[in-house]
Amino acid sequence: MSVSTTVKSIQDIMRQDTGVDGDAQRLSQLCWLFFLKIIDDQDQELELTKDGYKSPIPKKYQWRTWAADPEGTTGEALMTFVNNELFPALKELSIGEGSSTNRRKVVRAVFEDAYNFMKSGQLLRQVINKINGVDFNNLSDRQHFGDIYEQLLSDLQSAGNAGEYYTPRAVTQFMVDRVDPRPGEILFDPACGTGGFLTSAIRHMRDPKNPNGVKSVAKEARMQIGLRAFEKKQLPHLLCTTNMLLHGIEDPSFVHHDNTLARPYISWGQSDRVDVVLTNPPFGGREEDGIESNFPVHFRTKETADLFLALIIRLLKSGGRAAIVLPDGTLFGEGVKTRLKEFLLTECNLHTIVRLPNGVFNPYTGIRTNLLFFTKGTPTKDVWYYEHPYPPGAKSYNKGKPIRFEEFAAERAWWGNADDGFASRSENGQAWKISGETIKSGGYNLDLKNPNSPKEETADVEHLLSEYERLLAQIATTRAHLKAELHQALTPTARAGA
């Protein structure tokens, strides 16, 4: 049976169980089961190749002990073991000391908030037996399952606000391709979701055609120890950790289950600096009360994406490179957003903004997004814009016809070299350049339209809705700014001072 058939049959079995409700629960259930199978397959290989290696999971709870036998425990006895023994033992797993400490931390973190949704021991045994058909030490099986796993993640649209977890693979691949992370560099995703940027970066560095990639066992080790990530929500953290194991990462303990923004801005010191940041910070969301107080007064806001941008600029080393996804609202926003953009253009060379068309993140959100590429250490002299067009005949993207990596071929051909200041770039129907001084004199508005393109087609309903949302946001920002100015002008203290 093929891997894809196996996964489909597992999902069909789970749909029969009364305890599993919807895609999010189904994926969460599937994930902890696959996690235990993947880590056990990996353990068995490490036991053969590494002297003195010992699995982080006690023998009684290893997959090979309780799950591998197709005629093993089933029914009520299986449910009692899973709920009353397996889960409590792994949730409270002793971290201890020694070489397996980090892997024990990973197991404990994964099960900390995990839950067994299935109610039928017979159906759970059927699922387990299907999973036993996948050999994660077989390269072909692992690669095939990796593709299927990525498809499962992209299909999370019915799982609440799943869009904040998933960035289209074509977008992550393009951003990684342009930033070109290398083994030995510290690579950080402060809001990693299910691990899309991390897996794209790993594939990029392992690509045999990459002259700067992994060419030895030593470089593979340097790549793995250079990875850093945070994810505050339980489900995507579980999905990301499993994703890392699936991609052959021996120690995924670098994926922290925590809110990056909860740590005071000033406490991120020199030892925390990184070479590369690749991320899609949640936008449109607002942080809980008190989080903004971790930041300097002039950057305080509840807008999640703004706080992440401030932190990313601080965390980059001099010469460090970043590529991040940001909504149109950040480009034209005022107040804190203006101060952030001034900070960005002063501290970094914001050399490129790729303006994505509407629908790239459908069905999760219709908000227009941008890819910002910058290098820390020198102020911005010029900003190059590139307006990414729809493929011929298309007016939007959707789940059936998503954006593809091949569509970025024009940008890649035009891109040029950072070492010579992108001297080979030239303006065309999609690309144009604006000086940093012009942006500064315009109040740091980065929402600049393509001067070389014909007037946009107003009959496109999706575009009209997106433009309407943009204008509403702009009106709200202006109203808030005006309200603050009036309040200051009309307070007794202000009048007395005048």
Structural write-up:
The chain has helices at residues 3-15, 22-49, 63-66, 75-91, 101-112, 121-131, 139-154, 169-179, 196-206, 217-225, 234-246, 304-315, 328-332, 336-347, 409-414, 436-441, 461-490, 492-497; strands at residues 187-189, 227-231, 255-257, 274-279, 316-327, 348-355, 369-376, 382-387, 431-435. It has 498 residues and is α/β, with parallel strands linked by helices. It has a 9-stranded mixed β-sheet. The radius of gyration is 25 Å and the shape is globular. The N and C termini lie far apart (81 Å). 40% of the residues are buried. Residues 157-163 and 494-498 have low confidence and may be disordered.
